[in-house]
């Protein structure tokens, strides 16, 4: 079955750029039915959607993070990546990648959900 | 402050029924966008529990059910079991933000 795995440094210094990669196995990232998303969860807090990408490279981001976020895709490696610039302690969180299923009925966009999720990786911002 | 509002905690005894509410607004749930629910067991990644307001993925027990009305949605769990102790999150799409939004999460305690 489809599996996702996050990878990247667990410690990033303030003002630097956080970089993570999500490797997809058991299926193709080039499927036309899905987007691929990043979600984060600060310690002891709730979930926050960061942004999403289609295999063609089309992206959309959370407005609150848009100025600092870049998501890219490498279909040859079945991977997509997250870069978050100018990080502060507030960016310390478990970062998850997930497949995003978009749902339509007739010509109406019903919304989307995330399934499955990677196991998550903790990124700490500290000097 | 989350766009979708959930109670911070709920509790119930084994065998009982509990519900978790998720309140949104006219730009998300009230606009007709679907609501989805996730279960997060301690120390693990969230797992899809309900999609499209009331649909259960394969493998999710029918003790879990979802509904939506107006600007709110609810997750109901019947026949509570100790293994249901977890955090539960609702999620929808918001047209004002042009993206996905989550509730703040509800911690379920099985007494």
UniProtKB/TrEMBL annotation, chain B:
GO terms for cellular component: extracellular region; immunoglobulin complex; plasma membrane. It is found in: Cell membrane; Secreted. Keywords: Adaptive immunity, Cell membrane, Disulfide bond, Immunity, Immunoglobulin, Immunoglobulin domain, Membrane, Secreted. Residues 1-102 form the Ig-like domain. Pfam families: V-set (PF07686). It comes from the Eukaryota. One of its GO terms (biological process) is adaptive immune response. PROSITE patterns: IG_LIKE. Its main location: membrane. Immunoglobulins are composed of two identical heavy chains and two identical light chains; disulfide-linked. This is IG c1281_light_IGLV1-40_IGLJ2. It comes from Homo sapiens (Human). The lineage of its organism: Eukaryota, Metazoa, Chordata, Craniata, Vertebrata.
């Amino acid at each position: 079955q489809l599996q996702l795995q996050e990878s990247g440094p667990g410690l990033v210094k303030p003002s630097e750029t956080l970089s993570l990669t999500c490797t997809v196995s058991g299926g193709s990232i080039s499927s036309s039915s899905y987007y691929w998303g990043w979600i984060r969860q600060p310690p002891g807090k709730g979930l926050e959607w960061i942004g999403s990408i289609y295999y063609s490279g089309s992206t959309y981001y959370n407005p609150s993070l848009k100025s600092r976020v870049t998501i890219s895709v490498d279909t040859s490696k079945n991977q997509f990546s997250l870069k978050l610039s100018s990080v502060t302690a507030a960016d310390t969180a478990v970062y998850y990648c997930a497949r995003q299923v978009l749902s339509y009925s007739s010509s109406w966009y019903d919304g989307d959900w995330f399934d499955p999720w990677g196991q998550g990786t903790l990124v700490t911002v500290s000097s | 402050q989350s766009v979708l509002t959930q109670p911070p905690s709920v509790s119930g005894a084994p065998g009982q029924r509990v519900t978790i509410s998720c309140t949104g607004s006219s730009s998300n749930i009230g606009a007709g966008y679907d609501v989805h629910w996730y279960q997060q067991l301690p120390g693990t990644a969230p797992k899809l529990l309900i999609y499209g307001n009331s649909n259960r993925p394969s493998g999710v027990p029918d003790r879990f059910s979802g509904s939506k009305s107006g600007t709110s949605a609810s997750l109901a769990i019947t026949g509570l079991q100790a293994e249901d102790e977890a955090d539960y999150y609702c999620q929808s799409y918001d047209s004002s933000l042009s993206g996905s939004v989550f509730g703040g999460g509800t911690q379920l305690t099985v007494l």
